[in-house]
TrEMBL record:
It comes from Chlamydomonas reinhardtii. This is Heat shock protein 90B. Keywords: ATP-binding, Chaperone, Cytoplasm, Nucleotide-binding, Signal, Stress response. GO terms for molecular function: ATP binding; ATP hydrolysis activity; ATP-dependent protein folding chaperone; unfolded protein binding. GO terms for cellular component: endoplasmic reticulum. It comes from the Eukaryota. The keyword Iron does not apply. Residues 27-184 form the Histidine kinase/HSP90-like ATPase domain. Residues 216-267 are annotated as: Disordered. GO terms for biological process: protein folding; protein secretion; regulation of meristem growth; regulation of meristem structural organization; response to endoplasmic reticulum stress; response to salt stress; response to water deprivation. ATP binds at residues 34, 38, 82, 87, 95, 101-103, 122-127, 174, 386.
Length: 628
């Protein structure tokens, strides 16, 4: 199409499309998943708007919230049409090419690193995957607020927009015409499409129809003899196929014999419904297979790897809701990046089966926004605006229960890991959790450990629960990670504090003069090396009645001094009084709080420590670097 207004794609989109259209990526199927997902999103949007204004749906066919897919085998064009919200001219220009999304550059970067094309949906650029199979695409769209427009592009850096004067009026919604590439002709067959649509549409909450061609028998006028022969053949066949029904068949054919009718086979097109679009979360958990849960996960999360774990439950009481919650195996690419600025797309909120929003911070706290899945509530009101819904007290209850459930799921994985470790040490095997269960928490911690730490900072209510989930290295555990409970279990008699030191690496911390004496006396010291750790410790003052003690701070007290040692301390203090006084005077007074004789060192003659209430040197370093 060279008619219409021409627009240049945003530069990164051009690069992205160039990569996609020339991609040798073999799994081209994903384009269909992405387009169906967009159609479903568009339907969700119009259905949501119709809650407060019924007239928005229009009437006749237009009001059918459905997706239809068909094929022109001759011209090798594949059509996907939804009756969703549609796009105005402005939407087409912005959404399909000119507005830069943060995901575009992030996805390009991933692809350069050899990332999987499959991830495209997660980066918010799924539409362009259509160029895996097409060399020319037209998007015809009709939004209630505008005329019908056509967007078209051959992925050559530009697209055209023109008012549509050639296609049938859509009423409302979007029709995508996919001109299949030479090497993607396999998508031009009904069988292939059927298989794919079934695979990707199983958990889409709108009916999806595929136009199929079937052989049907239609009555014709024909000479009698020919008819008889025809029928005999059929009879024989049926007898072979289903013996049990033989009697019935006989009766039927007798009837037919009485008034013989000639039939002829003819090809007839029909709309075949490919999904049952019943919400999976309404089913009983015992009726849903692991495979179905994982398939549903992929449908709601845009992830393509299985979830690490999930929970399907129903909350009862004042606030009723059903929910399926998933913890992904891999953290979303941008989870920790600009953590405080981003929207939180993870949990989808439904009210009585109607999709409301997938960005409700009232539903789940930020530190758990990696959790995917759905919450469907019967208690929340349906016909109110999103703003009003956010004020609903019931949402608070839902959030509280969801958080509990998620922390429960994580706790279970953590407990299985601890149990496995203990059993391995003891050489026990009876009732041991499966290998998968034993390894789950390590995977979780690797991907989401920082989320747990952020939770300790942000979620005062669950701080203790979250602290239980912490994993770290210590002076006694070598390469193994350990827990606070295990640390406490190993504490020396009379030890009151949990000792830790933070720094840039395990080696640095272990070799630090700050921990010399502690180690020499046999105390275990936690080695924190993540920049977040010291922030976390700023919020976690104690655990299980044990105070945390930062080894780099002035008030570090070793608890196992006996009377003799105490006396010796006093003597030393007297003896070096002049020296400490002199020292304080020599060094700039404003920068020094005091000089003390101390027995916290073993071989190092002196160290500079931080005041009890000041930032540690490590913290100063982090703050200066603005690392977080
Ligand atoms: P995402 O779906 O993650 O936003 P896509 O690249 O798949 O990213 O789609 C880009 C945008 O184009 C969508 O956000 C939506 O605004 C618009 N869009 C795509 N397909 C449709 C459609 N069938 N109906 C309405 N809008 C659509
Ligand atoms: Mg999409």
């Amino acid at each position: 199409r060279d008619s219409g207004e021409q627009f240049a794609f945003q530069a990164e989109v051009t690069r992205l499309m160039d990569i996609i259209i020339h991609s040798l990526y073999s799994n081209k199927d994903i384009f269909l998943r992405e387009l169906i997902s967009n159609a479903s999103d568009a339907l969700d949007k119009i259905r949501f708007l119709s809650l407060t204004d019924k007239s928005i749906l229009g009437d006749g066919d237009t009001s059918n919230l459905e997706i239809k897919i068909w094929l022109d085998p001759e011209s090798k064009v594949l059509y996907i049409r939804d009756r969703g919200i549609g796009m105005t001219k402005d939407d087409l220009i912005k959404n399909l090419g000119t507005i830069a999304k943060s995901g575009t550059s992030a996805f390009l970067e991933q692809m350069q690193k050899g990332g999987d094309m499959n991830l495209i949906g997660q980066f918010g650029v799924g539409f362009y995957s259509v160029y895996l199979v097409a060399d020319y695409v037209e998007v015809v769209s009709k939004h209630n607020d505008d005329a019908q427009y056509i967007w078209s592009s051959t992925a050559d850096g530009s697209f055209a927009i023109s008012e549509d004067t050639e296609n049938e009026p859509l009423g409302r919604g979007t029709l995508i015409k996919i001109h299949l590439k030479e090497e993607a002709q396999e998508y031009g067959t009904e069988a292939k499409l059927k298989e794919l649509v079934q695979r990707y549409s199983e958990f889409i909450n709108f009916p999806i129809y595929l136009q199929t061609e079937k052989e049907v028998e239609v009555p014709v006028e024909e000479p009698e003899e020919a008819v008889k022969e025809d029928e005999k053949e059929e009879e024989g066949k049926e007898d072979e196929e289903e013996e049990e029904g033989a009697e019935d068949d006989e009766e039927e054919s007798k009837e037919e014999e009485e008034k013989p009718k000639a039939t002829r086979k003819e090809k007839k097109k029909d709309w075949e419904l490919l999904n049952d679009n019943k919400a999976i979360w309404l089913r009983k958990p015992s009726d849903v297979t692991e495979e179905e849960y994982q398939k549903f996960y992929k449908a709601v999360s845009k992830d393509y790897t299985d979830a690490l774990t999930y929970s399907h439950f129903r909350a009862e009481g004042d606030v009723e809701f059903r929910s399926i919650l998933y913890i992904p195996s891999v953290s979303p690419y941008d989870f920790y990046d600009k953590y405080y600025e981003k929207a939180q797309h993870g949990l989808k909120l439904y009210v009585r089966r109607v999709f409301i929003s997938d960005d409700m911070k009232e539903l789940i706290p930020r530190y758990l926004s990696f959790v995917k899945g759905i919450v469907d509530s019967d208690t929340l009101p349906l016909n109110v605006s999103r703003e009003m819904l956010q004020q609903e007290a019931a949402l608070k209850t839902i959030k509280k229960k969801v958080v509990r459930k998620v922390l429960d799921m994580i706790r279970k994985m953590a407990e299985a890991e601890v149990k496995c470790k203990e059993m391995e040490e003891k050489g026990e095997t009876e009732d041991k959790p499966s290998e998968k269960e034993c390894g789950q928490y390590a995977k979780f911690w690797e991907q989401f450990g920082r989320a747990i730490k952020l939770g300790i900072i942000e979620d005062t209510t669950n701080r203790n629960r979250l602290a239980k989930l912490l994993r770290f290295h210590t002076s006694k555990t070598g390469d193994q990670l350990t827990t606070l409970d295990e640390y406490i279990g190993r504490m020396k008699e009379g030890q009151k504090s949990i000792y830790y030191l933070a720094g840039t690496s395990k080696e640095e911390v272990a070799g630090s003069p700050f921990v010399e004496q502690l180690l020499r006396k046999g105390y275990e010291v936690i080695y924190f090396t993540d920049v977040l750790d010291e922030y976390v410790m700023g919020h976690l003052l104690d655990y299980d009645d044990k105070k945390f003690s930062n080894a780099s701070k002035e008030d570090l007290k070793l608890t196992d001094k006996d009377e003799v040692e105490k006396k010796k301390d006093k003597e030393l203090k007297e003896q070096f009084k002049d020296l400490t006084k002199w020292w304080k005077k020599v060094v700039d007074d404003s920068k020094l709080q005091g000089v003390k004789v101390s027995n916290r060192l073993a071989t190092t003659p002196c160290i500079v420590v931080t005041g009890k209430y000041g930032n540690s040197a490590n913290m100063e370093r982090i703050m200066r670097a603005q690392a977080f």
